[in-house]
Specification:
CATH topology of the largest domain: Rossmann fold
Oligomer: single chain
Helix content: 25-40%
CATH architecture of the largest domain: 3-Layer(aba) Sandwich
Shape: globular
Distance between the termini: 17 Å
Number of domains: 2
C-alpha cells in the first residue's frame, strides 16, 4: 500500500506526534509499504520544504534536502523504492513540510503526486490552531484528503472533560468539541482511532466508535548503543537505584506523596536513589526540576541530562531501574514518554491520579504488569525490588496490527 501520514510538525525531536508518525512510517516501509509524511503547520520551516529521509549511521532516518547539490547518493526521488543494494535495504520516506499559514496548494500537489491508498491524519488540534479550534482548517483538509480513504488518529480531544472543569475549560472545550464534530462530518473518516479508553468513551458520546491504537516508544531500542564518556561520567556516581523522568513535566505533577514513599522503600531496602532527567522537560518542567534539586537534595541524587540524541537516550534508559510517568493514571495510554520507557524494559510508576473524567471508561488504562500505580500499597509491591524485562520495541507489532486494520477496512 501507499500510505501518506499527515501531522502538524515533523521537526525530529520537537514534536511527539510527528516523531510517532515517522516511526510508524518507518515500520510500514520495513513491511514493504511505500510511505510519505506531510507536515501541515511546521514552525521549523519558513518555506515549503521537500526532503527525502535515508538511513543514518544509527539506523534512524535523517532528512536530506533534495534541492541541495551535495545530497548523498543514498537519497532517492520521492516515493521511489529500490531493492536491496549490497545486502542493505534502501529504506526511505519522502517528506513535505508546510510552514504556518502556507498556501495548501503545494501540499495538494504532493498528495496527488504520491497517490496514496490511505491517508492517516495524526491529529492534535493545537498543532493546527493556537486554541485547538478546527473550523478554519476543515476546508483545507477536505481539499487535501480528497477521495482518499482516511484513518483519523486522535491524540487529543477537547478540554473540560474532568469531573469539575473550570468555566474557561468548559467554554473552550465546547467550541473544540463542536469543531471536531464538524471535521468528522466533513472528512468522513473510514477508521477513527485514539490512544486510551477514556478518549474512546468520550468519543462515543458524540456518536463515534473509535478503536484503541496503543502508542509505542518514539526512540528505537538500540541494545548496543554506546554511552558517550561525558554522559557516563555523570551517571557513574549514581546510586543503587536509578529512576528516570523522560520528557515533559507539567505543573499539575506533584512530588508528594510519591517521593516520601520512594524514600521509605529505599531506606527499608538499604538502597540510595538517583533521579535522572532526560529529554525536553519544557519551561514549566525545568522550573519544577530546579525546585526538586533544591528541596530534596538531602534525599536523592539528581542528574539533569536534558535533550540527547536517540542512541544516547536508548543507552541511558537501559542503565536505569525504573521510570516515573508525569501523566495521570486515567490517560496513561496517551503518554509517548511512558511508552518509550516501557519499550526499554523499565517498569513505570504512575504518580498522578488527579484527572477524573466525567465519562467512565469500561476498560482499565493499561493491563501491562510493568505499569505500577502509585498508592499506599506501593511499598509492598516493590518490597522485592524493581521488576526487570528485556528491552523490546513494540513499534513493529503495532505497525502490523495497524496495517491489518486498514486492509480489513478496505475489504468491507
Amino acid at each position: 500500500m501507499r500510505l501518506l501520514f499527515l501531522c502538524a510538525c515533523l521537526e525530529p525531536g520537537r514534536d511527539g506526534v510527528g516523531d510517532y508518525a515517522r516511526r510508524l512510517a518507518e515500520e510500514c516501509v520495513a513491511l514493504g509499504h511505500t510511505c510519505a509524511l506531510l507536515a501541515l503547520n511546521d514552525p521549523y520551516v519558513t518555506t515549503p520544504a521537500e526532503d527525502i529521509e535515508v538511513p543514518g549511521d544509527s539506523g534512524q532516518l535523517v532528512a536530506v534536502d533534495l534541492r541541495a547539490t551535495d545530497a548523498p547518493a543514498k537519497a532517492l526521488p520521492p516515493a521511489v523504492r529500490r531493492p536491496e543494494v549490497d545486502g542493505y535495504p534502501e529504506r526511505h520516506i519522502s517528506t513535505f513540510r508546510l510552514p504556518p499559514h502556507a498556501d495548501p496548494a503545494p501540499a495538494i500537489a504532493f498528495r496527488e503526486k504520491f497517490a496514496p491508498d490511505w491517508i492517516s491524519l495524526q491529529l492534535v488540534a493545537y498543532g493546527l490552531h493556537p486554541k485547538g479550534l478546527l473550523f478554519s482548517v476543515i476546508p483545507r483538509l477536505r481539499a487535501l484528503i480528497g477521495a482518499t480513504p482516511l484513518h483519523l488518529m486522535l491524540h487529543e480531544l477537547w478540554l473540560g472533560n474532568d469531573a469539575v472543569p473550570t468555566l474557561r475549560h468548559r467554554l473552550t472545550g465546547a467550541l473544540q468539541k463542536a469543531s471536531l464534530r464538524r471535521l468528522l462530518a466533513a472528512l468522513k473518516p473510514a477508521l477513527v482511532a485514539t490512544t486510551n479508553p477514556v478518549y474512546a468513551a468520550l468519543l462515543k458520546t458524540i456518536g463515534v466508535n473509535a478503536v484503541i491504537q496503543p502508542l509505542f516508544g518514539n526512540v528505537p531500542v538500540l541494545p548496543d548503543a554506546p554511552l558517550p564518556e561525558e554522559v557516563a561520567d555523570r551517571l557513574r556516581p549514581c546510586s543503587d537505584w536509578v529512576g528516570l523522568f523522560f520528557g515533559g513535566l507539567y505543573r499539575e505533577w506533584q512530588p508528594q506523596p510519591f517521593f516520601g514513599r520512594l524514600e521509605r522503600i529505599a531506606r527499608a531496602a538499604g538502597r540510595s536513589v538517583a533521579l535522572v532527567q532526560l529529554g525536553r522537560a519544557g519551561e514549566v518542567g525545568d522550573a519544577i526540576w530546579s525546585r526538586l534539586e533544591r528541596d530534596y537534595a538531602s534525599t536523592f541524587t539528581f542528574v539533569r541530562l536534558g535533550p540527547q540524541p536517540a542512541p544516547v537516550v536508548s543507552a541511558v534508559m537501559q542503565r536505569c531501574d525504573f521510570g516515573i510517568a508525569a501523566s495521570p493514571w486515567s490517560l496513561f495510554g496517551k503518554s509517548g514518554s511512558a511508552a518509550t520507557m516501557l519499550d526499554h524494559g523499565l517498569p513505570v510508576i504512575v504518580t498522578r491520579d488527579d484527572f477524573r473524567p466525567h465519562v467512565v471508561a469500561a476498560e482499565s488504562p493499561t493491563s501491562d504488569p510493568f505499569v505500577i500505580r502509585d498508592g499506599p500499597d506501593l511499598e509492598a509491591k516493590l518490597a522485592a525490588g524493581f521488576p526487570t524485562r528485556a528491552p523490546r520495541s513494540r513499534a513493529p507489532e503495532a505497525a502490523v496490527a495497524w496495517v491489518r486494520q486498514l486492509e480489513a477496512e478496505a475489504h468491507r
